[in-house]
């Protein structure tokens, strides 16, 4: 145990004290705090000042209608009658024509985009009301203007799908995703991908460098090869989790220090019944995914005896992580439970990327998600066992080339 801890602590401390670790961690933490103040940063560069008052030059009936619609939009702009003067943060609305309605909005400053949208929506509703009155439409006829078309889909399908209601609208059949859950998914997959790419290379280099420099000859004289490798793998896993923990702490601090109400309201972020499940399984799959890929990187690093072969050996890690990443990202806005997603979610190297996507869908059962966890745990145990066996048999090998090492290990 002492030999394991000696190698473990030496590897862990050397990595967390490295300048690359500190700089990369600091950059991500800064980006987290910048993102938490994104709306304020935009406000600094946005020279437009919000309107407080719109003065209307028209009859009282029009002004009453306009004011009612602006209040319905929950706008913070006051609507008053024109008094002949336009002050700071004020605008003048005049009617140029009645059939159809045309307006002129005059202001001494640039109007912010969100306020402009409210004004345009209110004037559009006034135009619609004016058109209904001009055409003398009844309330029933006016209501028909907003009625969506009913579409019946006559599409060839299997016997089970034929029982689905054919008059269902596209909005009812489309898989709807909660925006907050989608953001949690994106953060999980993107962070996992970049940490895997970063630390897979590091652990592979760590294992290969010792073998190529022949330092391992002195190490194995005092530490068993398997103990040494497991200590290396454990240390690199803890380094990656340390960096991930720092990111999570930075997010918690940002949430406590800064007001996110404006961002939440702008993007419509609201939790639902799947949010807690999404968070729990995202964290589980993120940790297990990192452990699996780092274990496989150590396994592949055990094959080589020359640094020139390192990139070739680690190519499967890059390739499979990239494929899993793209499968997850490109299916989040489509059907999150299609055949490709279902099949790939049970393939161990794709599971940590794809299973969080399936967790978004409330139809995905807990058993399915737990099966994914079990697949990863079994795969991690198998990868570490293979890495230890191969490292023990090839630790002192001088054979050049991955395939030569494979043939020699298979014979042994």
From TrEMBL:
UniProt-recorded Gene Ontology molecular function terms: ABC-type transporter activity
Single GO cellular component term: membrane
InterPro entries per record: ABC2_TM (IPR013525)
Chain ranges of the ABC-2 type transporter transmembrane domain: 19-388
Localization, UniProt: Membrane
Membrane topology: Multi-pass membrane protein
Residue intervals passing through the bilayer: 21-38, 183-201, 235-258, 278-301, 313-333, 369-391
Location, primary (coarse class): membrane
Alphabetic keyword roster: Membrane, Transmembrane, Transmembrane helix
Protein name in the entry: ABC transporter permease
